[in-house]
Design a protein that fits this description.
This protein has a single domain (about 5-195), classed as 2-Layer Sandwich (Nucleotidyltransferase, domain 5). Helix 2 (about 80-90) crosses helix 7 and helix 3 runs parallel beside helix 6. The chain is an alpha/beta fold. The N and C termini lie far apart (about 50 Å). Strands 1-4-3-2-5-6 form a six-stranded mixed β-sheet. It contains seven helices and six strands, in the order E-E-E-E-H-E-H-E-H-H-H-H-H.
Length: about 200
């Protein structure tokens, strides 16, 4: 496993293929208040790229081009937050999208444990640490522990997608999952527009 830490943007000539695992780290969970600080990515090959963003400009054309590429599927865990944050600070809609949390909720109805740590443990027999989840991602210098934590959030998403896809197909829920993934960018825009807690489909 190799973890590469980049300042500002991805370097040139990195090819993630047809799908890339993506996660974000911000100063909190409110996209309007809490700035995006870090975007981490993996091609599912055991390597990760952790991009520490310049929050004064968010000038990262190669990262934006990758995330906005309609030919590349972006794999997230809890995509709703990441999509809203990426649109708010980078001005891009990262689609098409796959969300392992939604896939888990549709496929693994025998449990209410759909966190990334739970999925990795059950489906991959991998125990990941969440110790750095609440830390200062806006620091000028990220610690080695922070960088490694950020990497761990994307290293296993391709493998989880493969496992969850098999379960969704087995339970005949794959088309439903795909429809939910297609709606996710709209759900993120509703969050940003002020409808985060309102069910617009309710009576």
């Amino acid at each position: 496993m190799t973890v590469q830490h980049h300042m500002g943007d991805l370097p040139a000539a990195i090819d993630f293929g047809s799908s890339v695992a993506v996660d974000t780290e911000a100063m909190g969970l409110n996209p309007h208040r809490d700035p995006l600080c870090v975007v981490q990515l993996s091609a599912g090959d055991g390597d990760a790229h952790v991009v520490q963003l310049n929050r004064s400009t968010y000038d990262c054309p190669r990262l934006k081009a990758l995330l906005g590429d309609p030919q590349v599927t972006k794999i997230f865990h809890y995509a709703r937050f990441d999509l809203a944050t990426l649109e708010r600070y980078l001005g891009i809609e990262a689609s098409p999208v796959y969300c392992t949390k939604i896939a888990s909720k549709l496929a693994r109805t025998y449990t209410d444990r759909h966190g990334l740590k739970d999925l990795c443990k059950e489906l991959l027999s991998v125990d990941i640490s969440k110790q750095q989840q609440s830390s200062d991602w806006g620091a000028d210098t990220l610690s080695e522990a922070q960088v490694n934590y950020a990497a761990s959030d994307v290293l296993y998403l391709h493998a989880l997608k493969e496992k969850l896809d098999a379960m969704l197909l087995r339970e005949a829920r794959y088309p439903l999952a795909q429809a939910a993934f297609t709606f996710l960018p709209v759900r993120a825009r509703l969050d940003l527009a002020g409808w985060a807690d309102d069910d617009i489909f309710a009576h």
